[in-house]
Amino acid sequence: MQPFGNAEQLHRSALISDREVLLAAKTGDVEVICRYLQSAQNINRQILWNGKTISPLHLASMVGNISIVEIFIRQQVDVDIRSGSGISPLHFASEAGHQKIVELLVKAQADVNIKDEIYCSAPLWVAAQNGHLSVVKELIKSFANVDSQEQKNGCSPLYSSSQNGHLHVVNALIKAKADVNLERCSGASPLYIACENGYYQIVKSLINARANTNLQESVNGSTPLYIAAQNGHHQIVDLLINSEVEVNLQTKRGFSPLCIAAQKGHPQVVSSLIKAEADVNQQEIRGGSPLLIASQNGHHKVVALLINAKADVNLQQVTGESPLFLAAQNGHLQVTLELIKAQSDVNLQSVDGCTPIFIASRQGHLRIVDSLIDAQADVNLQEVRGFSSLYVSAENGHLEVVNSLIKAQADVNLQENDGYTPLYVASQNGHDQVVKSLIRANANVNLLEKANGSSPLHIATQGGHLGIVNTLIRAGAEINIQEKVEGSTPLYIASQNGYHQIVDSLLKARADIKIQTYNGFSPLHVASKNNHQRVVDLLLKAQSEVNKEMVLDEQGQRCGVHELAFSAASSDQTLSQKLHSALTESGFVESRAKLQMAAADVLQDVLRKRLNNDDIFVVGSFSEGWGNNLQCLDGRTDIQSDIDVMTLLSGRLHHPLGFCQCDDATIVKQAYENGHINAPGFASNPALPSYGTALRPALDQVDAARLCCYPTIAPLQQQRISKSHIPKFVLSSLQDDVSSNYFSPCHVVNAASPGQGGYELRVSTSFLEKRMLRSLTTLQGQLFVTLKYLVKKVICHTDGFNLQGVKPYHVKTITFRMVGETPPEQWKPDNLVILVRRALQMLHDSAESNCKPDNAHGRIMEHFFLSDTALYLKGVNRDDSEQILSRILGTLKAVIEELPQLLVQFIGSLTPIDESGRFHFHPFQILPNLTPRSTVKSDPLKYEEIYDVVRECLQRLTKDDCSLQSQENLALLISRLPDCAFTPREALKALACIKFGYQKTAERIVSHCRGHSVSRGIAWSAEKPPAAANFDVVWQYLRSHDSTWKFCFQFDERPVFSFLPVTLAALFPLQLMNEPGCFFINFEALMLALNLELRTIGDFQSKIAEVTQREDADDLELLTAAMFASDIHESKLIFNRLVQQSSQIPATIQAVLKRRWNELTELSNNQK
C-alpha cells in the first residue's frame, strides 16, 4: 500500500521522483542530486525505500558514495538525521566500513556518540562489531566514547569485537583505554566471551591489559576459565592458569572448571587443571565429583587421569550413586573396568539401595554385569523395595543377564516387599525364555504375591501369555489355585478375558470349571456375560451337565447359556453400530481428537509467546481432545463448554509432608490428606469463569502453585499395574510425568474438600488426566463423549432429569477406570452400547457403595490418580447428601433402563462433518488473554505479533489525524501483515483509503479481492491417520494459508469508524454481550460488507444467499447479509439462523435490523 498524499505533492515530485533521487544517491549520479537539491523544499526529507524510510544521505553513506556525501554536506544537510528506524548516516557508514565517509561526517560535526533507536548503539559499537579497524580508529580519534554500551544486551565495543574475533580492533580499543572488565547485562566480560569462542590472541591481549580473570558472569556464575574448560580450549586454559587464575571457583550449581571439563570429556584441559592443583574431589551442589561426572558420561581417558590424581573412587552424590554405579548404569564398560581396578566398592548402595550390579542388570549391560560378578559383587543385595538384580533383569527380559546371575548363585525365589518373585514378574511381562531359565534353576512356580495371593500362572493368564502358561503347567504350577481377594482361578481369568487358547490349555490340564469366585461367578458365567462365544463352547464341551447351568439375563428371566450369550446382543450390537457410525461421521475419531490436541498446543504456544510466560497452560476438554463439543468434533467449542487456562504462580512452592524429598532444612512441609494440603488463608475459588457465546467460548482461568512432587499415584502402584489394561506406553508416560514433575508439574489450586474452605488447597492431577485422555482410542473416546452427553444433557440438564451433583469430572474418572479394567479385545464397535451400560453401572455401584448415613459430605467415588482420596458430589449441602445420592441411584437406574432411547436421541443431536472434514481454528478469536502488547518491529512479523498489529491498525483508524505522516505510518504498519493475514491486510488498506479520501483506490482494492477465498479451516479427511495430526501440521496450516481473519479484541470503549456508513459503523466491530469491553471482527465479513457497500459485486443477492446457506457462517457474517438483503424470504432465513445460533445482538444493531425488516416488509406488501 502506497503512502497517501495530495495532488499538489504528487505534481511536485514528478520532476524528480523519490525513486530517482535514491537511485542517484546509490549510484553516484551527481547531476540528479544537484537538480533535486535545487528543487526540493526540504532537503532533509525522508523517502520510502524497500520498506524503510531513509534520506538520500543515509543511502549514500550506506553504499559509500563519497562525492554524493560531500555534496550533501556542502548543502548543509542535517548530518545527524535519523531514518524511520532511528539510524544516523554515521551508523550506516560505520557498519559498512566506509572510513572516508566517516571522516567526512565527523568533520561536518556529526555526533560520534549518537545512538540508534533500535538497540541504542553508537557508531563505534557498530564498527567494532563488524571489525572495521580504520573506522574504529577514526572514531576513537574523534573522541568517541569507547565504553558506550548498546541497550539490548549491554555489549561494549570491546565486548563485541572480542566476541567476533577482531583482534586488531580489540588492540586499538585497549590502547584507547577501553574498560577491559566492562560486563554486558548477563555479567559476561570481554575476556569471558573471547575464552568462550577460543580467540587465543585476544585472550592474551586482554590478560596483558589486566583483565580480571576471575570475573563471574551473573546468569550461571561461570568464569573465563570455566567457559574455556567447557569448550575444550586447552591453550587458553593454560594461558589463564599462568595468569594465576583461581582454578576452583564454582558456578551457582557448584560446577568447577574441572567438573565441566570432565563432563565434556576434554583430557588435555583436565590434565592442565590437575597440574594446577585443582581439587579433584570438589563436588557440585548435587554431590557430583569430577570423577563421578566423567564416569557417568563414559570419558575413560579423563577417568584414568583423575584416578591417577588420587580422586576418591567411592565419593557418592547426594542420592548415593557412586562413579561405578553411574558407569554401570550407562553401559560404559571401559570406565567400569578402570574403577574396579582402582578398588571401587562394588557393593556400595545408593540412597534407595541400588548397587552397580543391580542397575547394570536392569539396563541389560551383560559385559558390565559379568565384570562386577568377577569382582565379587553381591548378586542378592536388594534395594529398598526389595528388588534384586535378578528380579529387575527378569522384569525387563534380559535373558543373558538372567543366566549370568543364576550361574553366580543368585536366589531365584527372592521376593520383593510385595511378594513378587523374578518368575512372577517375568510371567507378567511375557518373557518366555526368561521363565524357562528360572524354572530350570528351580524357581518355585507356586510362590504367591502378598496383596492378592496370585501366582505366576494367574498373572501369565491375565496377560494372555499362552506360551508361558503352557510352560508353567508343564513345570507343575497349581491349576486350580484361587487368588485371595476375589477368588479367581486361572481358568476364570482366561474365561473372563476371552483367551480361548489358554482356556483350552487349562482344561486339558484338568482345570475345574465349577470353582466360583467369592461372589458366586463361574468361568462359564463370566464368559457368557462378556459374550466370549468360543470360550463358552470350550467350557460347555468340558461340562457334561451344561444344561443344568442356568444364569439370569438382564430382565431377570432364567435362560440357558447359549441363549444368554446371544439374547440381548443382537439389539445392542445394532445400536452399537449405529452409535459408532454416527459418532465417527461427526468427527469423534482418534485422528481428529489428535488434531484438536495439536490445535490446543498451538493456542498455548501463541499465548505463551505473546505473554512471554512458559508457565501458562491450556488444559481441560479443549486441550484433552475429547468432549469439548458434544455435537461434532470440528474444532469449535460448545457454548456450554469452555477453554481452561491455568497459570503457575512464580515463587510459590508447596511441600507435602510424607512425600517431599527436598533436603532444604528451611522449608515448611504441609500436612497432606485426602488429596489436599493444609494451607490456611486461601479462599476456595479454583476458577474464574466467564460465559460463552457462538463467537467466543467461555473461559475458566485458574491460578495454581507448584507442588514439589506428586503424592502416591494409584494407577502406577505395582498392585494396580499388574491388573491394569492401560497400555504400557501410557503408564510409562505417566511415570515420566510423575518422575520429572517439570513439564507436567503437580500443583495445587484454591479449592478445598467439603467443610474445609479457607484451610486447604486441592492437589490437581490435570496433567495426568490430560495424558490419559490424549491416549484414548477412537472407541474409548466415543465412550467418554457418550457418557459426558448422558451426564450433562440427560442427568443434569433442565430438559432431562434436572438432577445436580454428578459432574463431568466423574465421567473422566469412570472412563479411566473403564480403560484400566476392560481388556483390549472388548473395545469393538459392536460392544459400544455394552461398554456404555457397564460404565453407567460402574458409576451406579460407586454411588451405591457410598450411600451411607455417615457420608455427610457427599462422597461418591475414589479419585482415580490420588490414593485414599475421595471425589464428591458437586454443589450439595451437607444435610442433603444422602438424599441426593439416593436420587442419583434412582436416576442412574432409569438411565440404564432407558439407554437405547437416550442413545437414539444422542445420535439425533450429532452433526455430521462435511466431506472436506473441515476443522475450525482461529487462535485470535478464542485467545484466552486479550491484554494488548506493544507492537514490535521484528522483520518478518511473527505470527503471535499479528494480533497486536491488527489491533493497533484499528485504533489508528479511529483517530482524527489524517496527516501525511499518519498516512505513511499506517501504511507501513498494515504492510507488515503477512499473507496468512491477507484478508485483514487488504480490508485494513481499504478502510485506510476510505478514511483518507481515496475512494477509487479503496474500490480497486476491494474489487481485486473479490475472487479471493479465505481458508475456513483445516481440511482433514476421515482417512488421515492419528500420527498425521501434530503441532507442526497446525502451525504449517496457519502460516501457509489465509487463515487469520477472525479476531476478538479488548478495548476500553468501542472503536468507531466514523468514516464508514452508519450501518457498517454499527456492525464493525461487534460487541460481545458475554464479555464487557470485548469486540469481535470478522475481516471476511468486513470485506463482504465493503464489496456490497461500494457496489463492486454485480449479483450481490447470490453472494448473500451463499452466506446464508453456509453452515459455518458466524453472527457477523449473517448480520452483514441481513443488512444488505433485499428479499423478505432471505431475511427470514437469516433471522432464523441467528435464533438457532443463540446469537446475542446489541440493541443498536437490533434497531438497525428492525428498520431494515420494516423496509423489506413494506416493499413486499407493495409488490403484492
Automatic annotation (TrEMBL):
The keyword Repeat applies. Keywords: ANK repeat, Repeat. ANK repeats lie at residues 52-84, 85-117, 119-151, 153-185, 186-218, 220-252, 253-285, 286-318, 319-351, 352-384, 385-417, 418-450, 452-484, 486-518, 519-547. The keyword Repeat applies. It comes from the Eukaryota. PANTHER family: ANKYRIN REPEAT AND PROTEIN KINASE DOMAIN-CONTAINING PROTEIN, ANKYRIN REPEAT-CONTAINING PROTEIN-RELATED. This is Uncharacterized protein. The lineage of its organism: Eukaryota, Metazoa, Spiralia, Lophotrochozoa, Platyhelminthes.
